[in-house]
Specification:
The chain is mainly α and 225 residues long. It is 51% helix and 7% strand. It has helices spanning 13-28, 37-44, 58-70, 91-95, 99-111, 116-122, 132-143, 182-222, and strands at 35-36, 74-76, 86-89, 151-153, 165-167. The N and C termini lie far apart (99 Å).
Length: 225
């Protein structure tokens, strides 16, 4: 099966959240999938396993579903026993992902850029990766797809051992490639140092005041002994 994807299709933040939520619930709670509009709104606005936490209303989710349907990424599920419309994703039809690729893309859509270690832990309910090599191999395949790359590696942040990876379904973001600003970092560190020094000096002053009060109290007591 040849994966289909319309060219120059870029998901909005809302569309990525809706699509990621549908994929997640399909795998983790299959008994309650496809999702009603209300259930999908709740899934999008979860406070756990979401970064950032969002507050989408029904109309915003409905608009995202309409756009995703036009892009071939979601649609209404056909269920004769359902009294209300239910919605499903079409990721498999669009990209022909493996289970591990689906899990990685889902977490990247729901939680933003992640390290391989974070991805391994956060995909556990969708696919169990044996080790980090397994995760990195999956990321490499997503980065080198024949049609177009769906993942990119980001510059390593100062003080971190692992690079982060981001999905490209919402396009590339210039800030991902922006180099760290060492001058500003040093300024921030200097400001932090000054604040710490001021606090230490204040504490030392309070200790001196306390010692003086103790001496005065001792002298006051001596007057009555």
């Amino acid at each position: 099966m040849t994966p289909f994807r319309a060219t120059n299709v870029v998901l909005t933040e809302n569309e990525a959240r809706v699509l990621g939520s549908l994929v997640e619930k399909d795998i983790t709670t299959p008994d309650y999938y496809p999702l009603t509009l209300n259930a999908l709104v709740n899934a999008c606005n979860q406070k756990s396993n979401r970064e950032p936490v969002m507050n989408l209303n029904e109309e915003m989710v409905r608009q995202a579903l309409h756009s995703l349907n036009e892009k071939g990424l979601s649609g209404t599920a056909s269920a004769a026993d359902s009294r209300v419309p239910k919605f499903e994703h079409r990721m498999q039809e669009a990209f022909n992902f493996t289970r591990r690729e689906t899990a990685v893309m889902c977490v990247l859509m729901l939680r933003g850029p992640q390290t391989p270690g974070e991805l391994r832990g956060r995909t556990e309910r969708m696919h169990r990766f044996e080790d980090l090599t397994d995760v990195q191999s999956t990321l490499q395949k997503l980065m080198t797809r024949e049609t177009e790359p769906l993942v990119k590696v980001l510059p390593r942040q100062p003080g971190t051992k692992e690079a982060r990876y981001a999905h490209l379904l919402s396009g590339d973001k210039p800030e991902w490639d922006a180099p760290p600003a060492p001058i500003e970092s040093r300024t921030e560190n200097s400001a932090d140092g000054e604040r710490l020094a001021a606090l230490e000096e204040e504490v030392a002053g309070l200790k001196r005041d306390m010692a003086e009060l103790k001496q005065e109290l001792a002298g006051f007591r001596e007057q009555f002994e």
